[in-house]
What we know:
- 28% of the residues lie in helices and 21% in strands.
- By secondary structure, the chain is an alpha/beta fold.
- It has an eight-stranded mixed beta sheet.
- Helix 7 packs across helix 8 (242-252).
Amino acid sequence: MAPHDPSLIVLAGGISSRMKLPTSTGIDDELKKQAAERTKGMIGVGAEGRPFLDYLLYYAREAGLREVLVVIGERDHAVRAYYGEQDRGNPFHGLTISYAVQTIPPGRVKPLGTGDALYQALSARPDWSGGDFIVCNSDNLYSIRAFRMLLEDGAPNSLIDYDRSGLEFEENRIAQFGVTKKDAEGHLLEIIEKPPAKHLEELRDKDGTLRISMNIFRLQYDMIVPFLKECPLHPVRQEKELVAAVTRMAQKVPRSVKALPLKEHVPDLTYQGDIPKVQEFIGKHFPASLW
């Protein structure tokens, strides 16, 4: 793969345990059934049951991305049934869709986290060595602008650094996102998970803005792989997390990750209660026919 070929990795291998929690919000029985059975990206939140992932891929295509590698779980058949059964090279409205399967280690009932998902994906694609890629969650609807910012930035690695005040979530939810700490020139020093409120003031940018990561990065294959491989388990969740690997890389290779500031809302599909809000956003911002 040439170093600047536009490519995207979508992390969709989790078991979506929070989405399976019942809710009292007004969603129909079919969507509740999908929320309990499908990976979040395949929940039919759009017109005529169009899955959430379609909208993310539409934005990615409009930004200039063409090759997509979707990381799926061992028991996930919905993604292949919709986007194509071949392991590689499924054509989809100007995109090429391929898959990497995130296996579950013996003795576990859940996958080993986002860091492990990306490591398994890159291990399956040694032909990508020497290039870079964008990686993101499958349950966030990142904008065309966000994708283009990453594609156009010239730093070795980068992430979108979201202004917390631009997110249209409840404050207790926003507090769950990792806060970014940068040097004076905007290079990432650390992504701090759920910092105590008393420490937030010292994490503000020089203009007073508090910024967070929502797990969308552009990364160099050869630089990130060693940090994914050696990523430690989270002490509570016992998972390898992508943010931990990126933080370690930023600390071991100073000035290697640029934080790109952006203020806008990012629709999120974590809980069943998010479904009506996502449906409303899609209805306002996307054409009914989409493709």
